[in-house]
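Hi, here's the filled form for the chain we discussed.

Project: internal
Contact: R.S.
Residues: 269
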Amino acid sequence: MDHTRGRNAVPPKSGHLMKDQPAAIYDRMFIERLIDILQEFPPEEPTRKRYINEMIAWSAKFGDIETGDPEMHHAVGSIYAEENEVYDAERHLALGTAVSAEILARLEYTWYTHDAVHTAGIYAARAVFPYLLTGSFRNANKAFLIFRNQLSSSPTSHALNVQEVSSQSNDVRVYPSLPLLNFTGLLLLAIQRGNADSFKQLLRHYATYIQEAGEWDQALAHIGEVYFGIRIPKQSNPLMDMMGMFFGGGPQGGNRSKTPQRSKAREAG
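And the returned structure, exactly as it came back:
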């Protein structure tokens, strides 16, 4: 979908559409209309963010999902990804559709290419953990495979000394120099098998690397509760608190304070 179409003027009265619509009008046609209007905004238009917030809030109020309509989140996240607004793109793509997972994985990989080689696992986790936190294992697994495949097909992949470990049920790629990437892959495998003991063993084995990664503890505790039944104390709004914490800053890598320049990101992609 071309997000640059018609971005020469602010859509007229776009901010009033949702305020004037009752819950009865909540249907796919109207949602598509709102998305079409969003795509008419120029990137620099100051009222665009307010329109996005109102659009998502309206869908959360009248729709079935309290975090807002996934198609809306996908449209918003895709626009931000195209503009290389990484943090905003992450927040919306994580709440989007199955297609969003591919965009988020590729966005994180592009960001990773501007950082140190050893930080691959941190960027992969930024594409995987949000989907696990929202209960979308399929999207989490899809994002991981896309990120891993891009890494394996990169010109420098031979230097990673990838090891293929095959069994009757799974094929696992082990990266000796990327422990956090290994952790994320094995975490997905443990979830797939529903093995709580494997999950606990992973946490112990990779404890030092997890600590170095930054704000992973609450996210992993929530994942343990959702997928393995390991109870944790309840919080006021654990999901959104953790999402905000996880996306609150750049990865704890050598270039964590910066996002890649737009032109460079396009070259890398």
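Let me know if anything looks off before we file it.
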